[in-house]
């Protein structure tokens, strides 16, 4: 790959990141989902918007219990 190809791809990546950020900024975050997120050698539960995939918060203790017991 040449330098100009890398620069073109980096520019495209930057534009996509800006587009994602704008979409997340304007999202109403109405649909939440709990996800198990791998962080190094550990996993953490986090609540994400299912529409824009942004991290919203950590689940409550009750939400964590329901998630781990596969309840809805």
Give a description of the structure.
The chain has two helices and three strands; from the N terminus they run αβββα. The protein has 72 residues and is α+β, with helices and mostly antiparallel strands. It has one domain. The chain has a three-stranded antiparallel sheet with strand order 1-2-3, with helices on one face. The longest helix has 24 residues, at 3-26. The radius of gyration is 17 Å and the shape is elongated. The mean pLDDT is 93.
How far apart lie the N and C ends?
49 Å
Number of helices: 2
The chain-level mean pLDDT equals 93
H-E order: HEEEH
Strand order of the largest sheet: 1-2-3
Uncertain segments: none
- Approximately how much helix is present in the residues? 40-55%
- How many domains? The number is 1
Structural class: alpha+beta
Gross morphology is elongated
Quantity of strands, as a count: 3
The main pleated sheet reads as: 3 strands, antiparallel
The radius of gyration over CA amounts to 17 Å
Beta strand %: 25-35%
Assembly classification: single chain
């Amino acid at each position: 790959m040449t330098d100009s190809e890398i620069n073109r791809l980096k520019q495209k990546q930057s534009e996509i990141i800006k587009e994602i950020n704008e979409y997340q900024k304007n999202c109403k975050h109405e649909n939440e989902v709990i996800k198990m997120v791998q962080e190094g050698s550990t996993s953490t539960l986090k609540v994400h918007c299912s529409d824009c995939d942004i991290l919203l918060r950590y689940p409550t203790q009750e939400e964590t219990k329901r998630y781990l017991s596969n309840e809805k």
